[in-house]
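Risk register update: the risk of archive-format incompatibility is retired. Evidence:
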Amino acid sequence: MILDELVISTKKRLHQRQKKIPLTKLQDICRQLPPNNKKNIFMARLQQPELAVIAEIKQASPSKGMIVERLPYLKIATEYQQAGVAAISILTEEDHFSGSLAYLEKSAQQVATPILRKDFTLDPYMIYEAKAAGAAVILLIVAILTQQQLEAYLSLADKLGLAAIVEIHNEAELRMALKTSATIIGINNRNLDNFNVDLTTTSRLSSLIPPDRLIISESGIQHPKDAAFLYQTARINGILIGEYLMRSDDKLQAIEELKQAVND
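Archived output:
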């Protein structure tokens, strides 16, 4: 399965980084960081009446291959900020998404918009890494975590002042997520086993989520009409959108069209 390959490569890269920078050093860096309110800004944006947009920066994916040849990520991050997105999602997985933690770190220095570290969080080390690099939000994928890990990582994220999106893509994973304190549930419309996409996944699963949890629909949004479909058929607070924006020559206009489609 593709997800198994992603986990294996993530662990390999993680072990390499751990040899270069020990956990104790990362923890020291995190302790010395000045306080900020980016987590609160992100949470507040998700709770606004209008649909929040989390705009993604990624160069490639296992399902689509190379999406763009060039990745002027700082320029893109600046454009996303100008468009008023709720957060910027940055892929940091290297082998399958051509991502880099350096992209996140440099973007966080340039823009004030909260940044989500989009990766396969497998170890507390990666949560400290995200904080040290300037992330305000992390992703926790239920499919690759135990219940105990999920609860421990949520607790650590909260301790570090990070928001966490707990990602699910079926009923069993939703049950796990709802047993935790997770405030934000991300519904992935892409099946992580075969990468097939079905937008009705959000419509179906959102109806099972209590009203006190915030919901983000992820993956498969290829057109403003897809955003409109999700907004009309599901209870969602935001959408995470990557490939559509990465392929767009005018990202500000593309984001405006997404918002207009929902409001029409």
